[in-house]
What does this fold into?
Amino acid sequence: MRGFKIFTGSAHLEFGKELAKHLDAVVSKAMVNRFSDGEINVQISESVRGKDVFIIQPTCAPANDTLMELLIMTDALRRSSANSINAVIPYFGYARQDRKAAPRVPITAKLVANLMQSAGINRVITMDLHAGQIQGFFDVPVDNLYGSIVFRDYVRSKRFKNPIIASPDIGGVSRARYFANQLGMDLVIVDKKREKANVSEVMNIIGDVEGKDVILVDDMIDTAGTMCKAADVLKAKGAHSVMALGTHPVLSGPAIERIEKSALDEVVVSNSIPLKQQCSKIMVLSVAPLFAEVIRRIYHNESVNSLFI
It folds into this structure.
C-alpha cells in the first residue's frame, strides 16, 4: 500500500496513529498552526503528488475549529496534486441538524456536505451518522460504518443470563431493533412523554425488564440526561443491571458527573472522539481496526459490504 498516505488533524492524533499502525503505515507529516488571531494555517510537509490520501479528523468539539481544519487541510492537499482525498470522520459533527425541524432554521448537515465537496473531498468514511439520510446530502461516496460490529462482540463476552436491548427513546427504536436482531435478543422501549404543560417528562417502559440485564443503545451520549434517567426508571422497574452503549462519547456539560451518580452499571463507547475526562464506569472500545480495514479495501478496490452487516 505504498500509493497512499495518512494525515491526521489535531482533533484525535492517537486515533490516527493507531489506525496507521494497523495498516503498517506511518502518519505523514503536516504542520497545523494558528496565526495570532486564531486563524488555522496548514502546511503539508511531504509530497502527495499522485497519492491517494486519507485524512483522519472527527469533527468533534470544538466543532467549528475541527471542521475548518479538515477543510483547510483538504484544500492544501488538493493544491498539492493528491490523486484522491478521502475524509475519515469517525464522528460527523452537525449531523443533528439534518432537516428543518422548525421555521426559518438551517439544514446545517447539508451545508457541511457542500463545504466538504467544494474543498475537494472525494469520499467520506464515517460511523453511525445521527441521521442516515445525510449520506444523500453528498454527491461523492459516503461509507457509514456501524459501531454495532464492535459492540456486539463485547456484549457477547459479558455472558449475561437474561439480556434485553432497550432504546432510550422512540427516535432510536430502529437502531436498537437492528442491534437486537444482530444478537437475537428482544427489545424494550423507554417512552418519554409530557402529560401536560409545565410538568416534567414521564418515562414509561414498553416491555418487561424484571430481572433482566438491560442494554441501552444509542448513537451518541451527549449530556447523558436521557440515558441516566432511563437507567433510573429501568432499575425501578426491576432490571438486574443496566449497560449503556453509545458510539460517540460527546459527553458535554455535566455528562460525566451524571454517569458517575446514575444507576448505570457500565457505559461502553468507541474512541471516535477522544475522552476529555476519565470515568470509572466508562469502557472505551477501539474502532480504529475497523476503519483501517475499510481503508485497505477501498485502496485495493475491494467491497466493503461485509463490514456493514
Summary: The helical segments are 13-22, 63-78, 108-119, 148-158, 173-183, 225-236, 255-261, 288-299. The chain is about 30% helix and 25% strand. The radius of gyration is 20 Å.
